[in-house]
């Protein structure tokens, strides 16, 4: 039976989509100059800024990248499902950013010169406050959690709890770091809930 291009070139497939996604995201953030919808709710004002949450926020890159690489080398069917989940949800987010450009004005003035504050400042400089709803950090975190549930090795209660805890921590970090509104998190969870049965039913 002849395998499709995806099955024969999984690394190229992953790299191609991520390259297209990053290019499109950068284009929307730098080249589309439309009025942005301000994302904000009352709960955002009640959540304090906490620099310690920059740790789980930054860990997100290893969390998502690590699961992609693990499934790529050890479980191609799980890799395929995780990639389709990412393609579906990330692409939906891009369409949302295109049709409804949005932003947030939650970032505080950073005071102090300690390591975490300086790291947060660099993060703010690298990651704009536009096109934040739905939150890609939330979507990516739960893409990892769903992939873990899909792998026999991680089906024990301890593994599942660990992956879920990390996904929740990363999602919380987006609001405590003032990178996202609570509405961004809820929108990200809604996108995940809609996509999950399409990929993992």
Structure overview:
By secondary structure, the protein is an all-alpha fold. Helices cover about 70% and strands about 0% of the residues. The protein has helices at about 5-10, 10-30, 40-45, 55-75, 75-100, 115-125, 135-150, 155-175, 180-200; strands spanning about 35-40, 100-105. Strands 1-2 form a two-stranded parallel ribbon. α2 (about 10-30) packs parallel to α5 (about 75-100), α5 (about 75-100) packs across α9 and α7 packs parallel to α9. The chain is globular and about 50 Å long. The mean pLDDT is about 90.
Question: Tell me about the biggest sheet?
Answer: 2 strands, parallel
The shape, in one word, is globular
As a percent range, the share of helical residues equals 55-70%
Overall pLDDT, averaged?
Answer: 91
Unreliable stretches (pLDDT < 50, length at least 5) are none
Helix-strand category? mainly alpha
Residue fraction in strands: under 5%
């Amino acid at each position: 039976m002849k395998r499709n291009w995806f099955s024969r070139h999984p690394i190229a497939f992953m790299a191609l989509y991520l390259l297209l996604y990053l290019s499109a995201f950068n284009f929307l953030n730098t080249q589309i100059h439309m009025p942005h919808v301000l994302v904000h709710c009352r709960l955002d004002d009640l959540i304090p800024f906490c620099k310690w949450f920059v740790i789980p926020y930054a860990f997100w890159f290893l969390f998502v990248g690590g699961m992609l690489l693990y499934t790529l080398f050890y479980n191609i069917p799980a890799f395929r499902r995780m990639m389709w989940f990412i393609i579906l949800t990330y692409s939906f987010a891009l369409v949302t950013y295109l049709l409804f450009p949005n932003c947030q004005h939650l970032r505080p003035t950073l005071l102090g010169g300690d390591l975490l504050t300086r790291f947060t400042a660099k993060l703010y400089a690298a990651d704009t406050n536009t096109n934040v709803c739905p939150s890609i950090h939330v979507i990516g975190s739960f893409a990892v959690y769903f992939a873990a549930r899909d792998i026999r090795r991680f089906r024990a209660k301890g593994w599942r709890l660990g992956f879920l805890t990390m996904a929740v921590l990363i999602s919380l970090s987006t609001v405590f770091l003032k990178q996202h509104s609570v509405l961004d998190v809820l929108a990200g969870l809604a996108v995940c809930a809609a996509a999950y049965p399409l990929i993992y039913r």
